[in-house]
Amino acid sequence: xxxxxxxxxxxxxxxxxxxxxxxxxxxxxxxxxxxxxxxxxxxxxxxxxxxxxxxxxxxxxxxxxxxxxxxxxxxxxxxxxxxxxxxxxxxxxxxxxxxxxxxxxxxxxxxxxxxxxxxxxxxxxxxxxxxxxxx
Length: 135
Fold this sequence. Notes:
Blueprint: H1 3-23, H2 27-53, E1 59-60, E2 63-64, H3 67-133
Antiparallel strand pairs: 1-2
């Protein structure tokens, strides 16, 4: 099994495409990567966990890197990618949604005040009409 090799290969291709899209300012590819990066990192997460479960080490050019260090490095890179492409955009969306909810609350409070004022004016008109009709 070569799960960890597949993990590093996909990760390398992903960051190569991401870096080139940023460097060459290709907006279509950059937006496509930003939209689908969370899916890529979910797949990478599955692959790295499969590598850990199957105890799948990789030998690079004849060098034996300890398996635990390979896993640790892979998990750190996976964590960084998950933060960069999923958690950070999610955080900004939550802040934006919180701001919009605050604006809605202010609008609702203003509507309540306006309805109270209208209710008071209607009550005054009704009372005035009732007083005018009584002999």
